[in-house]
Amino acid sequence: MTTFAILLCLHLCAVIFWVGGMAIMHIAVRPSAVEMLEPPQRLPFMAVTLGRFFLGVTISIVVLLVTGAWMMHFMASVGRLPHSVEAMAGLGILMMAIFGHVRFAAFPKLRRAIAAKAWPEAGKQLGIIRQLVALNLTLGVVTVVIAIIGRTALV
Ligand code: HEM
Prior knowledge:
Elements: H1 3-36, H2 39-77, H3 83-115, H4 119-154
Helix pairs in contact: 1-2, 1-4, 2-3, 2-4, 3-4
The site of protoporphyrin IX containing FE (HEM) has 23 residues, from helix 1, helix 2, helix 3 and helix 4.
Pfam family, one: CopD
Transmembrane segments: 6-29, 50-75, 87-107, 128-149
Keywords: Membrane, Transmembrane, Transmembrane helix
């Protein structure tokens, strides 16, 4: 197995964790919590669940950046860097910036509101997080499509 193949495997594991995790959160976990739990149970449950997921996303982002930059460097050195890879890097950075806003702005506000038992404010912050996760999920799927079409276009 070449170094490039190992990097690509790690890159794809990180993509699967991040995009798949957002899909599970958005499609299954949050709607089920809304259906089953009242705000004083649901909002702390969602904060704990998101906190665990965000730790995994942070690790995935580090893996994506290291493996992505390494593969780009390799491709540039052999003179084969398609626009699809540049588009992926741009969209990837945008997704990371959106995640940074969720993790370091909205999520701390959610936790503070929960600690103060301010349920309407906590619900508002969770709503903001839900919208940004939906946006990142869409961008993630678009990025995967661009990456795969870009590679198969070369074959
Ligand atoms: C700054 C971030 C990123 C950089 C620099 C980067 C770079 C790269 C590079 C150089 C490749 C190899 C392309 C090839 O072998 O033709 C690749 C593959 C891939 N990347 Fe990224 N990437 C980044 C983020 C992302 C994100 C956020 C996603 C999806 C959410 C993603 C999805 C993929 C997929 C699906 C492939 C495999 C394409 C294939 O083999 O058909 N990447 N990436």
